[in-house]
Amino acid sequence: MQYQAPKGTKDVTPKESYKWQYIEDIIREICDKYGFSETRTPVIEHTELFLRSVGDTTDVVQKEMYTFLDKGDRSITLKPEGTAGVARMFMEHGLFNDAQPTKMYYLYCPVFRYDKPQAGRLREHHQFGVEVYGAPRASVDAECIALALELFERVGIHGLCVNINSIGCPQCRPIYNAALADYLRANYDGLCETCKSRFEKNPLRILDCKEQRCKDICAGAPMITDYLCEDCSAHFDELKGCLNSLDISYKVDPFIVRGLDYYTKTVFEIIANSNGYSGTVCGGGRYDCLMEQLGGPKLPGVGFGLGMERLLLTAELCGAFIPQQRQVEVYVAAADAARVAGFVLAAQLRKAGIKTEFDHVGRSFKAQFKYADKLNARIVAILGEDELRDDRVKLKNMQNGEEKSVELLSAAQSIKEILA
RNA sequence: GUGGGUGUAGUUCAGCUGGAUAGAGCGCCAGAUUGUGGCUCUGGAAGUCGUGGGUUCAAAUCCCAUCACCCACCCCA
Hints:
By secondary structure, the chain is α+β, with helices and mostly antiparallel strands. Helices cover 38% and strands 22% of the residues. The protein contains 15 helices and 16 strands. The relative contact order is 0.12. The protein binds one RNA strand through residues 1, 4, 7, 58-60, 63-64, 81, 111, 113, 115-122, 125-129, 194, 208, 210-211, 258-260, 279-283, 304-311, 333, 335, 364-374, 377, 380, 382, 384-386, 394, 396, 398, 401, 403.
């Protein structure tokens, strides 16, 4: 084949789009129930927005962004995550002037990261995410987690782990960072090479290292949870209390450090451990300083992002049943002499709200039947020369084989009776 | 970005210690069944053997490069 989709991108073929639609429908329904409204923001943003929000020392910004100059010499970036764009939209439209909180979600939002692709990790993937601004209490944090869990449950994904942590705020984190740096400096020689370089840029990231020697060192490192200020500590306690009250089981994992700089206080990850794919299927947290950092008012925020491709992959590995939504209700099979009449009948049935299919290939009468069967049509409306002459149509129920002849004019009514 | 594996019909794969017209299942099309599907049987279409180069009398098979996918690391959704 001469052309193929660019590396790390994936087509959704017409055979599988129903899976996406199924999940999207569930998402809309749940978000609506929780009081979230959909928002849509551009695929491109000014590069500066991501430098200021995601953070210019993060891997995402440093090596994974699709950045280019447009014809007006503006530096433009394909969005690598969903939060920054929504924050920008929120400020640009002065939504902070409305009664708060503002609860928003985005769906099928394309996200780009220049990374080495593998299963569940693409260069272009699609996110569903939730953003709440103007709600400082930890109950929203818990509400977001509950929303995500409800989605997973509805889709049929089980065996999930909720890991939470608090990474403090500008008050307490510097104190912790200093303590961590002191500890790591004392153990510097034992760290792996990448961690040695991390030490200068972002020592927090070392906690996330998968190398055993670094893990061993980190096991004895000071814990952020011991350094939280009163406010952060109370917030973290409130979150745990809220999760407990909803019977959501979770694990406090002091080693969760998110890769995006805007997080404060709550961070969480939902991990799938299904046979085959195991990894983060949802990640999020609180970003109380983001809005201010971007030059807006001081307004707390919280949310999460969730990769749709990973969600779908995990659902399939869990053996989740995803119903095929469309089913042909009537296939109009017409003999050659009755083609025009059949074409018109199909149009009339559709007008009556019946899902109808008609032959546009020029198949033989018999082949039309075979094809109707392949489409899983529930009824075949037969228009032969006899029927055409008598202004009638024969309806065959494909499940039980029963046939009955009805007047052409009352076909829609008769079909509805059979379908009911 | 680092290391490893794999690329053969639409699809899943066989063939690979070099040898003649490159195979199978499923799918697709047609017929058996001259107005009636599923099952069965018969036939058919469909492949630059990922791409480019090299070795050789001869390459799907060996070598090199390249592209893509998969796995691990990194990072993340």
